[in-house]
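step: validate -> pass
step: tokenize input -> pass
step: predict -> running
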Amino acid sequence: MLVVNRFLVEGDDAQFRAGAAAALAALGARPGYLRGQLGRGYDDPTRWTLVTEWESVGAYRRALSAYEVKVHATRWLAGSLDEPSAFEVLAQAEPGGAVKTTGSDLA
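step: predict -> pass
step: emit ->
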């Protein structure tokens, strides 16, 4: 499962970066977390994204209910743009170009 949160950050980004580090640490400590990255737009440095990968939608939802995530990530994540952020992965490309596809879990 892929979670993509996008942000608009104008001005000094030091506080935003600190919040992102705390959020990533809290999320990264939860079962089912696979990896996460914070990125800033090359063409527009006011645009940021936090991308995390999870074993399942259940692992992600359980992580959001954890105390440490509520303290260190939920308030920070609430500043993301109001748009869909959770996605099921339907195709993956491995190094070398091999593509693996999977069926949807949606009914």
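step: describe -> The two ends are 16 Å apart (CA to CA).
step: cleanup -> pass
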